[in-house]
Amino acid sequence: MLMFECPHCKQATLTFKQKLLAGKWCDVICPNCGGRSCAYPALLVVLYFFYTWDVMLFGYLTVHETSVLYLGVMIGGWLLLEMFGISLPLARMKSTSPATTPGNPPR
């Protein structure tokens, strides 16, 4: 099974589904260490710009020119962008729970 590396514990514990969802603005939680990760937001903005451009341009050309070729190019571009989304690096996120330090006991 294809596994990806967690940026917190550096172990290959993230599944393909988790990595795919990271490219859809979802947080990823490592089952090994519990660390939260996400794809870099700036890269996701660029990725979604190209998603929108792909659908608007080739969707318009498919309807306006009534050509199946543009539909194929649109689907091919979408699949290429999905592959790029899976290859995006993950960024470490801070924990949402308050830190437990000797001076700050858990509540």
Give a quick summary of the entry.
With 107 residues, the protein is of the alpha+beta class. It is built from three helices and five strands.
Mean pLDDT: 83
Total strand segments: 5
**Count of helical stretches:** 3
Biggest sheet overview: 3 strands, antiparallel
Give the oligomeric state of the chains in this entry, treating copies of one chain as homo and distinct chains as hetero: single chain
Rg over CA atoms, rounded to whole Å, is 19 Å
The poorly predicted ranges are none
Helical residue percent? 40-55%
* Beta-strand percent range: 5-15%
**Sheet with most strands: strand arrangement:** 3-4-5
Walk me through this protein's architecture.
- The protein has 107 residues and is of the alpha+beta class.
- The protein has one domain (3-92).
- The protein has helices at 16-22, 41-65, 68-86; strands at 3-5, 12-15, 28-29, 36-39, 90-92.
- The protein has a three-stranded antiparallel sheet with strand order 3-4-5. It has a two-stranded antiparallel sheet with strand order 1-2.
- Strand 3 (28-29) and strand 4 (36-39) form a beta hairpin.
- The chain is elongated, with a radius of gyration of 19 Å.
- The mean pLDDT is 83.
Structure keywords:
alpha+beta; 3 helices; two-stranded antiparallel ribbon; 48% helix; 107 residues; elongated; three-stranded antiparallel sheet
